[in-house]
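User: I'm writing a tutorial on reading structure tokens. Could you give me a worked example: one chain, its sequence, then its tokens, then a sentence or two explaining what the tokens reveal?
Assistant: Sure. Here is the example chain.
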Amino acid sequence: MHQPAATRQKRPVMKEVAMPAPESVALSGSDGEHELQEKWNTTPRAHAFYRHQVLDYLNPSMQAFVTKQEMMFVGTADSHGEADTSFRAGLAGFIRVLDERTLAYPEYRGNGVMSSLGNIFENPHVGLLFLDFTEGKIGLHVNGRARIVENDQFLQDASVAEPIGENNLPAIGRGPERWVVVSVVEAYVHCSKHIPRMQKIDEEIQWGTDDVRAKGGDYFRAKSSPRAK
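And here are its predicted structure tokens:
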């Protein structure tokens, strides 16, 4: 029996809906990293780390961590890829977080070699490593692009919202000669597994001194050693 036209139901028409293609996300890390991850079957672990731990800015927890640090390691390389690692230290707050994508640290009078600054002058790529040995026993990597700014110019910059307080300057000795301003490219945790716990000891630090003994003197007897072999 045929249903009257008025009560006949229409079958739904199925239409194919084009789904948007998944957004392409740039993969963190270098080509060398990715090749070795494939070679040694660590790609799933690496990709999980990239997804969950690597940021292209400093989140609030990272910013708070950086401003509490009294030391950091600075990795640079010249235009030929010849690398150098150096150490920087100061009172807590000597590293300035200007915003979530920018930090700055002071350069004081040193031995005059300018190894780190010379590399930055040729090649702005820089890697900073902060390690907390006394409290959190954790580390933070910050990689980015650096530029050198003279002290007077830095202090006049509008992005320096707060004045440089006494806690940013050495207690004894000279103030900063210039600053290194780093634009953050990536930031990620350094796991605590092999970071030793240390105890901080309060002692007088002669910031900016030229005293040879206070600077360590000829500790490794290099002065009397052959220049090359």
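What the tokens reveal: The chain has five helices and seven strands. Residues 55-190 form a domain with the Pnp Oxidase; Chain A fold (CATH 2.30.110.10).
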